[in-house]
Amino acid sequence: MLESGSHGDITALIIVMALVTYLTRIGGHLVLSRFKKLDPRIEAGLEAVPVAVMTPLIVPPALTNGPAEAIAILFVCVASMRLGAIPTVALGVAVLVAGRNLF
Amino acid sequence: MQIEDSVKAARGREFMEGARDTLPILVAAAPFGIVFGAAAVAAGYSLYETVLTSAAMFAGASQFVFIEVNAQAVPAWMVVLAVFAINFRHILYSASIGRRIAAMSFLQKAAAFFLLTDIQFAGAEARAARDPHGRISAAYYFGMGIPIYVMWVATAVLGALFGKLIKHPEQWGLDFILPIYFLAVLMGFRTRERFVLIVLASGIVSMLAYKTLGTPWHISLGAFAGIGAASFTARGRTVA
What we know:
The complex is a heterodimer of chains A (103) and B (240). Chain A contains 4 helices and no strands. Chain A is mostly helical and 103 residues long. Chain B has 240 residues and is mostly helical. In chain B, helix 1 (2-42) crosses helix 2 (47-56) and helix 1 runs parallel beside helix 3. The longest helix of chain B is centred in the first third of the chain and has 41 residues, at 2-42. The radius of gyration of chain B is 19 Å and the shape is globular. Chains A and B meet through helix 1, helix 2, helix 3 and helix 4 of A and helix 1, helix 2, helix 3, helix 4 and helix 5 of B.
């Protein structure tokens, strides 16, 4: 629980966190736009960003939680080759919940 | 006038396309907004503080980190640093998205970067990949971003007010819906050049970092490993 009288500080903290967040969202563009022509290596690196950033949000949670989570991730991996995003996610969650009840 | 009208109509269509393409993500992300609102109120924050956090930060994962870290009576700068570390990946999004939205006005860009969440980035990149110039229109971008923002603030209010109804999010798999969602998005990129290489580099390094340094550094380090692997193997190509 929060201490009483700290609510003004909390508002200030929220504002600072919001500014830091905005800085990360505009910073990459501000730094990068200084370069007129992109080196092919930088180009390839930028193309890799979405896959490179999403993988760490998947792999440790998949491997460190338990069998139900690992199985659900494997299932989603296969299902996503056949199905669209909504059925894949919905079925993935169903497999997860079923697995948690089994293990 | 007629040309202006048809331009407006085309913009409206693109906005609606963006909103429509975002619908599945809205449904997937809404539970997190509600859970955040409920968790914040449970941790002792007021309705105003809870909604302000969602409205001003608009950054799911780091909002949860804020509540968790700030509950441990650490100095404020440590909370800010944790938020920065979690949001560091946005610098990478920003660098990539900046090229997609180069045609926008200054104010549009300023607003566009405020709305640059994980799901906005994934959706915008997917759209730009289908454009011959790799660009994305302002109408489509805000067609995605504005509904996501409204949803995020509205669900924070809902969660704060009615959150006590969701007592056990894990019973509904809500605590693990994010990795599942990200994987579904990730697989959409599987035909891209170097996909397997990037996933292996990023996956292995993030796992090592997770086991040694811990959260949230595994995200940034894993991402840099994947980017580095792609960048390094591109070296041999001839420059056109």
